[in-house]
């Protein structure tokens, strides 16, 4: 028996208010360069600074994409914030590619969603579910064309390229083995490149 039911509109308003307060707290937090702070699924998530291998992979990705970016005037960057409007998650990708770096303010940390061509994440022990499940879904709902995932916790390591974003996530996923004996990952237009995953730096 239902004694009293709170109207759904009231529940949504309360949830929106609570999330707005959480977002305000998120933007005020300053934990220094040794931590990454993100807002995922209505929770503030703090992760430690990544291992050096992680940074080597970011550099590796930058070199792989540089010819296509240079030819088209795109820019690669680590460490920018993305506010994903459909889920209200706020993420800090390991690597992303923007269309026009002059189309938005460069004195703020946030990159507009409509400028983002590709988001890359490199799995860490503390971020496996977020990188594999939560962020791809949020990025797909936001309409970001490509999501690239480097995962060293598979056997062997893998690189996955997700594309064709929609409300249920990315409709297309291509995965290749990485490191020694790895395959080739084709990144379609507008990039039109092939990544030799065998050259991915190995964790040691």
Itemize the secondary structure elements and their pairings.
Blueprint: H1 8-28, E1 35-40, E2 43-48, H2 52-72, E3 75-77, E4 82-84, E5 89-91, E6 95-98, E7 116-122, H3 128-141, E8 146-151, E9 158-166, E10 169-177, E11 184-187, E12 193-196
Parallel strand pairs: 7-8
Antiparallel strand pairs: 1-2, 3-6, 4-5, 6-7, 8-9, 9-10, 11-12
Record keyword descriptors for this entry.
204 residues, alpha+beta, tt1808, chain A, two-stranded antiparallel sheet, 3 helices, globular, disordered N terminus
What does this structure look like?
- The protein has three helices and twelve strands.
- By secondary structure, the protein is an alpha+beta fold.
- The chain has a single domain (49-199), classed as tt1808, chain A, CATH 3.90.1570.10.
- The chain has a six-stranded mixed sheet. A two-stranded antiparallel sheet has the order 1-2.
- The protein is globular and about 50 Å long.
CATH T-level topology: tt1808, chain A
Give the CATH level 1 class: Alpha Beta
Ranges where pLDDT stays below 50 over 5 or more residues in a row are 1-8
How confident overall, as mean pLDDT?
A: 88
Silhouette = globular
Q: Mind summarizing the main beta sheet?
A: 6 strands, mixed
Short description:
The protein is of the alpha+beta class.
